């Protein structure tokens, strides 16, 4: 099946998302971890930490180039969390020490959360400078920026601003802030932006649906709110900017928060979002089958199959991965498929349970397999 569909140079696909791609976060180096600990203890200054981050980010960007990736990220080396760090940089949003961490399968994160205390807006966000540094060292490679989707603020934040008891006002200010953010990253040179989103996973299981109802909401209405939030946030993006979304089931110390396939939300995800690509987790049986991909109707929507796990170091059987790509191509044309790890390697600074060398081996594995499939 795979071989029969390789017909022309269009399969090379030289724009983002790439045939062999990655979600973004990378294992924090010991030097980064030590420096962050020293900064927290008051042993080094913020400037010293920044210089160490610059050095380590430069190193891992060069390593990504050496591995063969077309898109390079800063590994989220300046962040403790994949989402809270960005959200706290928005106007009207604050971080705070919560009573408990986020529950994962068999473990919890450290206690931290965000709350909305003022009017949400995007101004002078520190991650603009983070992106500019990455852009300057990316060279001929594509600098990829990752930020949480607007749904993450709605779903994770404690809302203390009385103004936002009106959901419509919250929706308006939040999507306006993201429109400003997208334009600001574009003006800084960004042409490949990824929205990361764990909120969609709440629709994948009965337990998740019960969680929605416990919030006083209905699953169908929340689906539509999430979709409108994404589409409105990206509605004014420049035509030469690619925006993808990674749909995640949780990633902390090689464990997870959610299970279940895409079935219950497949029409909304695959035929209702205006993104240019979707990074999907398909690394194990918890992710369900490829059948929901039948709702992919747009020929310009790229589906990035996360068939390589970032949670453990063992390399997948390449022939099995190729067969799974072939299976997926029964629902989506091979020309619209790409390959990546199912998630990043360190959604939080703690990272998954594998070594840095295993991480690079995983990324090489992605690229070697993609090169064979899309020759």
TrEMBL record:
Residues of the Cobalamin-independent methionine synthase MetE C-terminal/archaeal domain: 23-349
Enzyme class: transferase
Keywords: Methyltransferase, Transferase
UniProt entry tagged with the keyword Methyltransferase: yes
Protein name: 5-methyltetrahydropteroyltriglutamate--homocysteine methyltransferase
Family annotation (CDD domains): CIMS_C_terminal_like
EC number per UniProt: 2.1.1.14
InterPro entries to which the protein is assigned, alphabetical: Met_Synth_C/arc, UROD/MetE-like_sf
Organism: Virgibacillus necropolis
Domain of life: Bacteria
Matches recorded under SUPFAM superfamilies: UROD/MetE-like
A GO MF term: zinc ion binding
Biological processes, Gene Ontology terms: methionine biosynthetic process; methylation
């Amino acid at each position: 099946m795979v071989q029969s569909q390789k017909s022309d140079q269009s399969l090379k696909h030289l724009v983002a998302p790439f045939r062999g791609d990655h979600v973004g976060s990378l294992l924090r180096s010991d030097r980064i971890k030590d420096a962050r600990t020293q900064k927290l203890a008051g042993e080094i200054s913020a400037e010293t930490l920044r210089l160490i981050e610059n050095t380590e980010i430069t190193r891992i960007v060069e390593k990504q180039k050496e591995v063969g990736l077309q898109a390079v990220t800063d590994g989220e080396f300046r962040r403790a969390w994949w989402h809270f760090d960005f959200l706290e940089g928005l106007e009207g949003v604050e971080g705070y020490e919560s009573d408990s961490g986020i529950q994962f399968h068999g473990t919890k994160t450290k206690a931290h959360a965000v709350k909305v205390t003022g009017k949400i807006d995007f101004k002078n966000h520190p991650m603009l400078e983070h992106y500019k540094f990455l852009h300057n060292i990316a060279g001929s490679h594509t600098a990829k920026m990752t930020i949480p989707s607007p749904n993450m603020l709605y779903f994770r934040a404690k809302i203390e601003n009385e103004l936002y008891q009106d959901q419509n006002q919250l929706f308006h200010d939040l999507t306006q802030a993201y429109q400003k953010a997208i334009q600001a990253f574009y003006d800084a040179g960004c042409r490949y932006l990824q929205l990361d989103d764990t909120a969609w996973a709440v629709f994948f299981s009965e337990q998740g649906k019960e969680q929605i109802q416990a919030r006083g909401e209905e699953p169908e209405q929340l689906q539509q709110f999430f979709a409108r939030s994404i589409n409105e946030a990206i509605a004014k993006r420049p035509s030469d900017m690619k925006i993808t979304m990674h749909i995640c089931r949780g990633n902390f110390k090689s464990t997870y928060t959610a299970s279940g396939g895409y079935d219950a939300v497949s029409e909304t995800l695959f035929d209702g979002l205006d993104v240019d690509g979707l990074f999907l987790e398909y690394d194990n049986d918890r992710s369900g089958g490829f059948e929901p991909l039948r709702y992919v109707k747009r020929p310009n929507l790229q589906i990035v199959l996360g068939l390589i796990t970032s949670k453990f170091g063992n390399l997948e059987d390449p022939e099995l991965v190729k067969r799974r790509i072939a299976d997926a191509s029964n629902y989506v044309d091979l020309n619209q498929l790409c390959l990546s790890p199912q998630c990043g390697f360190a959604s939080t600074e703690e990272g998954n349970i594998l070594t840095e060398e295993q991480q690079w081996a995983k990324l090489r594995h992605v690229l070697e397999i993609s090169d064979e499939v899309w020759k």
